[in-house]
Amino acid sequence: MNKIRMLIADDIDETRSVIKKILSLEDNQFEVVGEAADGEEVLSLIPMVNPDVVLMDINMPVLNGLEATEKITNDYPNVIVIIMSVQAENEYLKKAMFYGAKEYIIKPFDYDSLVETIKSTYEKYRERQVKFINNEPLRDGKIITFFSSKGGVGKSVLALNSSIIFSKQNNMKILLIDMDLQFGDISIMVNKYNQKTILDLIDEGQIDSFENIKPYLYKYSENLDMIFAPSKPEAAEYISKESIEKLLMQVKKQYDVIVVDTGINFNDNTLYVLDHSEKIIFLSTMEIISLKNTKLGLRVMQSLGYEKDKVKLVINKFNTSYGIGKKDVEEVFKDNIFAMIHDEEKTVALSINKGEPFCEASKYNKSKIGKAVEVMCKDLLGE
Ligand SMILES: Nc1ncnc2c1ncn2[C@@H]1O[C@H](COP(=O)(O)OP(=O)(O)OP(=O)(O)O)[C@@H](O)[C@H]1O
Ligand SMILES: [Mg+2]
Protein backbone atom coordinates (compact mmCIF):
# COMPACT_ATOMS: atom_id res chain seq x y z
CA MET A 1 0.00 0.00 0.00
CA ASN A 2 1.19 3.53 -0.75
CA LYS A 3 2.02 5.64 2.25
CA ILE A 4 -0.55 8.27 3.18
CA ARG A 5 1.03 11.65 2.47
CA MET A 6 0.42 13.88 5.48
CA LEU A 7 0.63 17.62 5.93
CA ILE A 8 0.48 18.70 9.56
CA ALA A 9 -0.77 22.20 10.34
CA ASP A 10 -0.57 23.51 13.88
CA ASP A 11 0.96 26.70 15.21
CA ILE A 12 2.50 24.90 18.19
CA ASP A 13 5.81 23.22 17.33
CA GLU A 14 5.46 20.67 20.06
CA THR A 15 2.07 19.45 18.83
CA ARG A 16 3.49 18.93 15.36
CA SER A 17 6.45 17.00 16.79
CA VAL A 18 4.20 14.72 18.84
CA ILE A 19 2.00 13.98 15.83
CA LYS A 20 5.03 13.28 13.67
CA LYS A 21 6.33 10.91 16.26
CA ILE A 22 3.04 9.03 16.50
CA LEU A 23 2.81 8.70 12.73
CA SER A 24 6.39 7.48 12.46
CA LEU A 25 5.66 4.66 14.90
CA GLU A 26 3.20 3.17 12.39
CA ASP A 27 5.38 1.09 10.15
CA ASN A 28 5.56 2.59 6.67
CA GLN A 29 1.96 3.76 6.66
CA PHE A 30 2.44 7.50 6.74
CA GLU A 31 4.82 9.96 5.23
CA VAL A 32 4.86 13.47 6.66
CA VAL A 33 5.43 15.55 3.55
CA GLY A 34 5.04 18.98 5.12
CA GLU A 35 4.50 21.04 8.25
CA ALA A 36 2.81 24.41 8.52
CA ALA A 37 2.25 26.86 11.36
CA ASP A 38 -0.62 28.79 9.80
CA GLY A 39 -3.32 28.49 7.15
CA GLU A 40 -1.49 30.45 4.54
CA GLU A 41 1.54 28.21 4.83
CA VAL A 42 -0.75 25.21 4.31
CA LEU A 43 -2.10 26.69 1.09
CA SER A 44 1.32 27.47 -0.28
CA LEU A 45 2.65 24.02 0.62
CA ILE A 46 -0.16 21.96 -0.93
CA PRO A 47 0.85 22.39 -4.59
CA MET A 48 4.47 21.66 -3.70
CA VAL A 49 4.09 18.60 -1.49
CA ASN A 50 0.83 17.17 -2.84
CA PRO A 51 -0.58 15.72 0.40
CA ASP A 52 -3.38 13.16 0.65
CA VAL A 53 -4.47 14.41 4.05
CA VAL A 54 -4.11 17.73 5.84
CA LEU A 55 -4.35 17.45 9.62
CA MET A 56 -5.44 20.96 10.49
CA ASP A 57 -5.71 22.84 13.75
CA ILE A 58 -8.62 25.31 13.86
CA ASN A 59 -6.93 28.11 15.75
CA MET A 60 -3.95 29.34 13.82
CA PRO A 61 -2.59 32.80 13.13
CA VAL A 62 -2.62 34.63 9.75
CA LEU A 63 -5.27 32.40 8.18
CA ASN A 64 -7.17 30.10 10.49
CA GLY A 65 -8.04 26.47 9.91
CA LEU A 66 -11.64 27.20 8.87
CA GLU A 67 -10.74 29.60 6.09
CA ALA A 68 -7.92 27.36 4.94
CA THR A 69 -10.30 24.39 4.83
CA GLU A 70 -12.76 26.29 2.67
CA LYS A 71 -10.00 27.25 0.25
CA ILE A 72 -8.71 23.69 0.07
CA THR A 73 -12.23 22.37 -0.61
CA ASN A 74 -12.59 24.78 -3.49
CA ASP A 75 -9.10 24.67 -4.96
CA TYR A 76 -7.87 21.16 -4.13
CA PRO A 77 -10.97 18.99 -3.77
CA ASN A 78 -8.87 15.82 -3.74
CA VAL A 79 -7.10 16.79 -0.53
CA ILE A 80 -8.77 15.39 2.58
CA VAL A 81 -8.92 17.78 5.53
CA ILE A 82 -9.17 16.41 9.07
CA ILE A 83 -9.71 19.10 11.68
CA MET A 84 -8.11 19.04 15.12
CA SER A 85 -9.75 21.04 17.84
CA VAL A 86 -10.31 21.25 21.56
CA GLN A 87 -13.62 20.30 23.11
CA ALA A 88 -14.91 23.85 23.55
CA GLU A 89 -14.88 24.59 19.86
CA ASN A 90 -18.04 22.69 18.95
CA GLU A 91 -19.53 25.50 16.92
CA TYR A 92 -16.31 25.80 14.92
CA LEU A 93 -16.27 22.08 14.32
CA LYS A 94 -19.68 22.23 12.69
CA LYS A 95 -18.47 25.09 10.56
CA ALA A 96 -15.34 23.20 9.58
CA MET A 97 -17.41 20.24 8.37
CA PHE A 98 -19.63 22.64 6.48
CA TYR A 99 -16.60 24.15 4.78
CA GLY A 100 -15.58 20.73 3.59
CA ALA A 101 -13.53 19.05 6.33
CA LYS A 102 -14.10 15.30 6.08
CA GLU A 103 -13.53 14.39 9.71
CA TYR A 104 -12.47 15.87 13.03
CA ILE A 105 -10.56 14.74 16.07
CA ILE A 106 -10.75 16.28 19.52
CA LYS A 107 -7.56 17.25 21.35
CA PRO A 108 -6.00 15.83 23.39
CA PHE A 109 -6.16 12.60 21.39
CA ASP A 110 -4.43 9.33 22.01
CA TYR A 111 -2.20 7.41 19.67
CA ASP A 112 -4.81 4.90 18.51
CA SER A 113 -7.60 7.33 17.79
CA LEU A 114 -5.35 9.60 15.74
CA VAL A 115 -4.02 6.79 13.59
CA GLU A 116 -7.44 5.19 13.23
CA THR A 117 -9.17 8.46 12.29
CA ILE A 118 -6.65 9.24 9.58
CA LYS A 119 -6.68 5.76 8.11
CA SER A 120 -10.45 5.31 8.05
CA THR A 121 -11.09 8.78 6.61
CA TYR A 122 -8.46 8.24 3.94
CA GLU A 123 -9.94 4.85 2.98
CA LYS A 124 -13.45 6.27 2.83
CA TYR A 125 -12.61 9.17 0.53
CA ARG A 126 -9.86 7.68 -1.63
CA GLU A 127 -12.35 5.91 -3.86
CA ARG A 128 -14.32 9.08 -4.44
CA GLN A 129 -11.15 10.96 -5.25
CA VAL A 130 -10.39 8.66 -8.15
CA LYS A 131 -13.82 9.37 -9.59
CA PHE A 132 -13.26 13.05 -9.13
CA ILE A 133 -9.95 13.05 -10.94
CA ASN A 134 -11.65 11.54 -13.99
CA ASN A 135 -14.34 14.17 -13.86
CA GLU A 136 -14.55 17.44 -15.71
CA PRO A 137 -12.94 20.54 -14.22
CA LEU A 138 -14.82 22.23 -11.42
CA ARG A 139 -17.10 25.08 -12.30
CA ASP A 140 -18.03 28.23 -10.46
CA GLY A 141 -21.82 28.41 -10.66
CA LYS A 142 -23.69 31.68 -10.54
CA ILE A 143 -27.16 31.70 -9.01
CA ILE A 144 -29.94 33.45 -10.93
CA THR A 145 -33.16 33.58 -8.94
CA PHE A 146 -36.67 34.32 -10.21
CA PHE A 147 -38.63 36.15 -7.58
CA SER A 148 -41.77 38.30 -7.22
CA SER A 149 -43.84 39.90 -4.53
CA LYS A 150 -47.09 38.69 -6.05
CA GLY A 151 -47.96 35.16 -7.17
CA GLY A 152 -48.83 34.03 -10.66
CA VAL A 153 -46.67 36.53 -12.53
CA GLY A 154 -44.70 33.95 -14.50
CA LYS A 155 -41.69 33.06 -12.34
CA SER A 156 -41.89 29.36 -13.07
CA VAL A 157 -42.59 29.74 -16.79
CA LEU A 158 -39.67 32.11 -17.22
CA ALA A 159 -37.27 30.26 -14.91
CA LEU A 160 -37.85 27.10 -16.92
CA ASN A 161 -37.57 28.67 -20.35
CA SER A 162 -34.55 30.75 -19.37
CA SER A 163 -32.81 27.59 -18.15
CA ILE A 164 -33.39 26.06 -21.56
CA ILE A 165 -31.92 29.09 -23.33
CA PHE A 166 -28.89 29.09 -21.02
CA SER A 167 -28.34 25.38 -21.62
CA LYS A 168 -28.08 25.99 -25.35
CA GLN A 169 -25.14 28.32 -24.96
CA ASN A 170 -21.72 26.89 -25.64
CA ASN A 171 -20.68 24.27 -23.17
CA MET A 172 -22.76 25.68 -20.31
CA LYS A 173 -24.07 23.32 -17.67
CA ILE A 174 -27.28 24.47 -16.02
CA LEU A 175 -29.20 23.32 -12.97
CA LEU A 176 -32.79 24.45 -12.39
CA ILE A 177 -33.94 24.14 -8.77
CA ASP A 178 -37.64 24.41 -8.02
CA MET A 179 -37.51 26.14 -4.65
CA ASP A 180 -41.21 26.83 -4.51
CA LEU A 181 -41.24 24.18 -1.83
CA GLN A 182 -44.98 24.31 -1.27
CA PHE A 183 -46.47 24.63 -4.71
CA GLY A 184 -43.63 24.02 -7.11
CA ASP A 185 -44.79 23.03 -10.55
CA ILE A 186 -41.71 22.82 -12.76
CA SER A 187 -42.10 19.03 -12.93
CA ILE A 188 -45.61 19.41 -14.37
CA MET A 189 -44.37 21.97 -16.87
CA VAL A 190 -41.98 19.38 -18.29
CA ASN A 191 -44.52 16.61 -18.05
CA LYS A 192 -42.70 14.57 -15.42
CA TYR A 193 -44.54 12.97 -12.57
CA ASN A 194 -43.45 10.80 -9.65
CA GLN A 195 -39.85 11.91 -9.87
CA LYS A 196 -37.51 12.24 -6.91
CA THR A 197 -37.74 15.64 -5.27
CA ILE A 198 -35.62 17.92 -3.13
CA LEU A 199 -37.34 16.42 -0.08
CA ASP A 200 -36.14 12.90 -1.00
CA LEU A 201 -32.67 14.28 -1.51
CA ILE A 202 -32.58 15.95 1.89
CA ASP A 203 -34.32 13.04 3.61
CA GLU A 204 -32.38 10.14 2.16
CA GLY A 205 -29.30 11.61 0.65
CA GLN A 206 -26.07 12.91 2.06
CA ILE A 207 -25.68 16.37 0.65
CA ASP A 208 -21.96 16.38 1.32
CA SER A 209 -20.89 15.34 -2.16
CA PHE A 210 -22.19 15.75 -5.68
CA GLU A 211 -22.04 11.97 -6.19
CA ASN A 212 -24.76 11.66 -3.54
CA ILE A 213 -26.87 14.40 -5.08
CA LYS A 214 -26.79 12.95 -8.61
CA PRO A 215 -29.50 10.28 -8.14
CA TYR A 216 -32.00 13.04 -7.28
CA LEU A 217 -31.46 15.08 -10.43
CA TYR A 218 -33.75 14.90 -13.41
CA LYS A 219 -31.76 15.08 -16.61
CA TYR A 220 -33.89 17.22 -18.90
CA SER A 221 -31.25 17.46 -21.62
CA GLU A 222 -27.52 17.01 -22.07
CA ASN A 223 -26.71 20.33 -20.37
CA LEU A 224 -29.74 20.91 -18.18
CA ASP A 225 -30.53 19.11 -14.92
CA MET A 226 -33.43 19.82 -12.61
CA ILE A 227 -34.28 19.35 -8.95
CA PHE A 228 -38.03 19.23 -8.46
CA ALA A 229 -40.07 20.56 -5.54
CA PRO A 230 -41.82 18.22 -3.10
CA SER A 231 -45.20 16.95 -4.20
CA LYS A 232 -46.93 17.88 -0.92
CA PRO A 233 -47.09 21.44 0.46
CA GLU A 234 -46.48 20.35 4.05
CA ALA A 235 -43.07 18.96 3.09
CA ALA A 236 -41.65 22.48 2.89
CA GLU A 237 -41.25 22.72 6.64
CA TYR A 238 -38.84 19.77 6.68
CA ILE A 239 -36.37 21.55 4.45
CA SER A 240 -33.99 23.71 6.44
CA LYS A 241 -31.84 26.59 5.40
CA GLU A 242 -28.79 24.52 6.30
CA SER A 243 -29.75 21.84 3.78
CA ILE A 244 -30.23 24.44 1.07
CA GLU A 245 -26.87 25.95 1.97
CA LYS A 246 -25.12 22.58 1.67
CA LEU A 247 -26.87 21.76 -1.57
CA LEU A 248 -25.93 25.04 -3.21
CA MET A 249 -22.35 24.72 -2.06
CA GLN A 250 -22.04 21.35 -3.80
CA VAL A 251 -23.85 22.20 -7.03
CA LYS A 252 -22.04 25.50 -7.52
CA LYS A 253 -18.93 23.47 -8.31
CA GLN A 254 -20.70 21.44 -11.00
CA TYR A 255 -22.73 23.98 -12.97
CA ASP A 256 -22.15 27.32 -14.65
CA VAL A 257 -25.59 28.68 -13.88
CA ILE A 258 -28.01 27.60 -11.17
CA VAL A 259 -31.49 28.93 -11.90
CA VAL A 260 -33.77 29.04 -8.88
CA ASP A 261 -37.54 29.33 -9.08
CA THR A 262 -39.10 30.58 -5.84
CA GLY A 263 -42.57 30.72 -4.31
CA ILE A 264 -43.98 33.91 -2.88
CA ASN A 265 -43.41 33.12 0.79
CA PHE A 266 -40.52 35.17 2.01
CA ASN A 267 -38.90 32.69 4.41
CA ASP A 268 -35.37 31.89 5.57
CA ASN A 269 -34.70 29.61 2.62
CA THR A 270 -35.75 32.20 0.07
CA LEU A 271 -33.77 34.88 1.83
CA TYR A 272 -30.67 32.70 1.86
CA VAL A 273 -30.97 32.07 -1.88
CA LEU A 274 -31.60 35.75 -2.63
CA ASP A 275 -28.57 36.74 -0.56
CA HIS A 276 -26.38 34.34 -2.50
CA SER A 277 -27.75 35.12 -5.95
CA GLU A 278 -25.63 36.81 -8.55
CA LYS A 279 -28.80 38.17 -10.14
CA ILE A 280 -32.40 38.35 -9.02
CA ILE A 281 -35.02 38.53 -11.74
CA PHE A 282 -37.79 40.44 -10.03
CA LEU A 283 -40.97 39.81 -11.97
CA SER A 284 -44.08 41.91 -12.22
CA THR A 285 -47.02 42.02 -14.57
CA MET A 286 -48.75 45.22 -15.70
CA GLU A 287 -51.66 44.74 -13.37
CA ILE A 288 -51.97 47.57 -10.84
CA ILE A 289 -51.71 45.31 -7.76
CA SER A 290 -48.64 43.60 -9.11
CA LEU A 291 -47.03 46.96 -9.87
CA LYS A 292 -47.74 48.24 -6.38
CA ASN A 293 -46.37 45.09 -4.71
CA THR A 294 -43.34 45.18 -6.94
CA LYS A 295 -42.56 48.72 -5.93
CA LEU A 296 -42.73 47.64 -2.29
CA GLY A 297 -40.72 44.52 -2.99
CA LEU A 298 -37.97 46.45 -4.70
CA ARG A 299 -37.72 48.63 -1.64
CA VAL A 300 -37.24 45.50 0.48
CA MET A 301 -34.41 44.46 -1.86
CA GLN A 302 -32.82 47.82 -1.28
CA SER A 303 -33.16 47.56 2.47
CA LEU A 304 -31.50 44.14 2.30
CA GLY A 305 -28.50 45.95 0.89
CA TYR A 306 -28.64 44.40 -2.58
CA GLU A 307 -26.89 46.47 -5.17
CA LYS A 308 -29.01 47.96 -7.89
CA ASP A 309 -27.26 45.89 -10.48
CA LYS A 310 -28.12 42.62 -8.78
CA VAL A 311 -31.90 43.07 -8.99
CA LYS A 312 -33.33 43.07 -12.50
CA LEU A 313 -36.92 44.15 -12.92
CA VAL A 314 -38.71 42.28 -15.68
CA ILE A 315 -42.27 43.06 -16.76
CA ASN A 316 -44.02 39.88 -17.87
CA LYS A 317 -47.30 39.50 -19.78
CA PHE A 318 -46.57 42.81 -21.44
CA ASN A 319 -49.82 43.99 -23.01
CA THR A 320 -51.13 47.52 -23.37
CA SER A 321 -54.77 46.61 -23.95
CA TYR A 322 -55.75 46.61 -20.30
CA GLY A 323 -55.60 50.29 -19.42
CA ILE A 324 -51.95 50.59 -18.43
CA GLY A 325 -49.46 51.61 -21.11
CA LYS A 326 -45.74 51.16 -21.52
CA LYS A 327 -45.13 54.79 -20.55
CA ASP A 328 -47.07 54.38 -17.31
CA VAL A 329 -44.93 51.44 -16.26
CA GLU A 330 -41.74 53.19 -17.28
CA GLU A 331 -42.75 56.18 -15.23
CA VAL A 332 -43.33 54.08 -12.13
CA PHE A 333 -39.93 52.39 -12.36
CA LYS A 334 -38.00 55.16 -14.10
CA ASP A 335 -35.40 53.61 -16.38
CA ASN A 336 -34.94 50.50 -14.29
CA ILE A 337 -36.80 47.96 -16.42
CA PHE A 338 -34.45 45.25 -17.64
CA ALA A 339 -36.81 43.46 -20.04
CA MET A 340 -40.42 43.23 -21.11
CA ILE A 341 -41.84 39.84 -22.06
CA HIS A 342 -44.96 39.74 -24.19
CA ASP A 343 -48.32 38.50 -23.12
CA GLU A 344 -48.83 35.42 -25.27
CA GLU A 345 -51.47 33.45 -23.52
CA LYS A 346 -52.01 30.80 -26.14
CA THR A 347 -48.35 29.89 -26.55
CA VAL A 348 -47.75 29.78 -22.81
CA ALA A 349 -50.91 27.89 -21.88
CA LEU A 350 -50.37 25.34 -24.65
CA SER A 351 -46.76 24.82 -23.70
CA ILE A 352 -47.67 24.28 -20.03
CA ASN A 353 -50.55 21.95 -20.78
CA LYS A 354 -48.46 19.87 -23.16
CA GLY A 355 -45.44 19.92 -20.92
CA GLU A 356 -43.33 21.34 -23.74
CA PRO A 357 -41.49 24.58 -22.88
CA PHE A 358 -41.95 27.18 -25.61
CA CYS A 359 -38.23 27.84 -25.83
CA GLU A 360 -37.67 24.42 -27.37
CA ALA A 361 -36.53 24.89 -30.94
CA SER A 362 -39.60 24.30 -33.10
CA LYS A 363 -42.08 26.37 -31.12
CA TYR A 364 -39.68 29.06 -30.18
CA ASN A 365 -38.95 30.00 -33.78
CA LYS A 366 -42.50 31.20 -34.15
CA SER A 367 -43.21 32.85 -30.82
CA LYS A 368 -42.43 36.43 -29.90
CA ILE A 369 -42.22 35.47 -26.25
CA GLY A 370 -39.48 32.93 -27.00
CA LYS A 371 -37.40 35.61 -28.72
CA ALA A 372 -37.94 38.04 -25.84
CA VAL A 373 -36.79 35.46 -23.29
CA GLU A 374 -33.74 34.70 -25.40
CA VAL A 375 -32.77 38.37 -25.57
CA MET A 376 -33.25 38.71 -21.82
CA CYS A 377 -31.05 35.66 -21.16
CA LYS A 378 -28.29 36.84 -23.46
CA ASP A 379 -28.33 40.27 -21.84
CA LEU A 380 -28.02 38.58 -18.47
CA LEU A 381 -25.10 36.44 -19.57
CA GLY A 382 -23.52 39.48 -21.16
CA GLU A 383 -23.40 41.14 -17.78
N1 LIG B 1 -45.78 35.94 -20.90
C1 LIG B 1 -46.92 35.33 -20.60
N2 LIG B 1 -48.00 35.46 -21.39
C2 LIG B 1 -49.15 34.87 -21.08
N3 LIG B 1 -49.34 34.10 -20.00
C3 LIG B 1 -48.32 33.92 -19.15
C4 LIG B 1 -47.05 34.51 -19.42
N4 LIG B 1 -46.21 34.15 -18.41
C5 LIG B 1 -46.94 33.39 -17.58
N5 LIG B 1 -48.19 33.24 -18.01
C6 LIG B 1 -49.28 32.51 -17.35
O1 LIG B 1 -49.36 32.96 -16.03
C7 LIG B 1 -49.67 31.91 -15.14
C8 LIG B 1 -48.71 31.91 -14.00
O2 LIG B 1 -47.42 31.56 -14.46
P1 LIG B 1 -46.37 30.89 -13.48
O3 LIG B 1 -46.92 29.68 -12.87
O4 LIG B 1 -45.10 30.79 -14.21
O5 LIG B 1 -46.29 32.05 -12.40
P2 LIG B 1 -45.55 32.02 -10.99
O6 LIG B 1 -45.09 33.39 -10.72
O7 LIG B 1 -44.54 30.94 -10.98
O8 LIG B 1 -46.75 31.63 -10.03
P3 LIG B 1 -46.64 31.16 -8.50
O9 LIG B 1 -46.41 32.41 -7.72
O10 LIG B 1 -47.97 30.56 -8.24
O11 LIG B 1 -45.52 30.22 -8.42
C9 LIG B 1 -49.65 30.65 -15.97
O12 LIG B 1 -50.95 30.26 -16.16
C10 LIG B 1 -49.03 31.03 -17.28
O13 LIG B 1 -49.68 30.40 -18.33
MG1 LIG C 1 -44.32 29.28 -9.70
Automatic annotation (TrEMBL):
Alphabetically sorted, this entry's keywords are:
Phosphoprotein
Q: What this chain does, per the record?
A: May play the central regulatory role in sporulation. It may be an element of the effector pathway responsible for the activation of sporulation genes in response to nutritional stress. Spo0A may act in concert with spo0H (a sigma factor) to control the expression of some genes that are critical to the sporulation process.
Ranges for domain Response regulatory come to 5-122
InterPro entries (alphabetical): AAA_dom, CheY-like_superfamily, P-loop_NTPase, ParA/MinD_ATPase, Sig_transdc_resp-reg_receiver
Q: Which residues carry this modification: 4-aspartylphosphate?
A: 57
By its UniProt entry, which Pfam families does this protein fall under?
AAA_31, Response_reg
Task: State the source organism's domain of life.
Answer: Bacteria
CDD domains for the chain: REC_YesN-like (cd17536)
UniProt keyword Cell division, yes or no: no
Q: Can you name this protein? A: Stage 0 sporulation protein A homolog
